[in-house]
Amino acid sequence: MRVGILGAGTMGRGIAEVVGRAGQAVVLYEPASAARAHAEAFLRERLPQAELQVTDALADLAAADVLIEAIPEDLTQKKALFLALTPLVGPTTLVATNTSALSVHELGRELTYRNRFLGWHFFNPAPRMPLVEVIPTAFTTEEAVQRSLTLLQAWGKVPVIAPDLPGFLVNRIARPYYVEALRLAEMGVPPEEIDRLMEGVGFRMGPFRLMDLIGVDVNHAVTQAVWAGLWYPTRFRPSWLQALKVAAGHLGRKAGQGFYRYATDASSPEDPKGPPAAPTTS
Description:
The chain has helices at residues 10-21, 33-46, 75-84, 104-108, 142-154, 170-186, 191-200, 207-214, 216-229, 240-248, and strands spanning 2-6, 25-29, 52-55, 66-69, 94-97, 117-122, 131-135, 158-161, 260-261, 278-279. Helix content is 40%, strand content 15%. By secondary structure, it is α/β, with parallel strands linked by helices. The protein folds into 2 domains: 2-161, 3-Layer(aba) Sandwich (Rossmann fold); 170-279, N-(1-d-carboxylethyl)-l-norvaline Dehydrogenase, domain 2 (Orthogonal Bundle). It has an 8-stranded mixed beta sheet. It has 10 helices and 10 strands. Residues 265-273 have low confidence and may be disordered.
């Protein structure tokens, strides 16, 4: 089986590692040269025996049996990419979006292959997190759903069918964990204190350490999407503090700084172990 992955960021690399470890051939598409080079070095170090191709040519995805999109959470960009894939999608190709919160119906409704299009929402770090939300649309065939479940299970994942609602299941439930923590930080409570307290009652990672791992920009985009999708309830209002972090480029581990500063350039952002170097609210 040949699996094409579109986007070589944190999630794209992580999904590629999952697929490679399962013994499948991987074609990783990334138009940005720096991200492409970083992803190839990362994956060849982790999977030296894997059948891996890293490319900037969409045409190289033509022979894929499965295509998984993992580009940034931008509805317009995603829709344009899926339309560009149309001539490359075969009559049996499964096409999945790894969106965290955008409407899968909206992404797929104009596609000629929408009967084989659905959401596969992996969680970060993808190689370690077993859960994958599978989000069918009204157009997705039952065969495509069952193929998805079987394939994800073969990759060692635990797929769960989720509704195409804002945030699906996990991100809808998780919003208060982030939003309420950010409200406290906006009122002057130090993020490291909030993390210490939450980890002290049993959470593996406090909300700010987790936002830094996920990507402050990604987390902020998901909150915005859930907030808009639910018609702007106050309880899910995005945080101005998080927006400032994004504007400053303090995106978390992948940038070397988020709500904490990190000792390195976060060359292994998928690894959640180890304390951050120092807190920062700048």
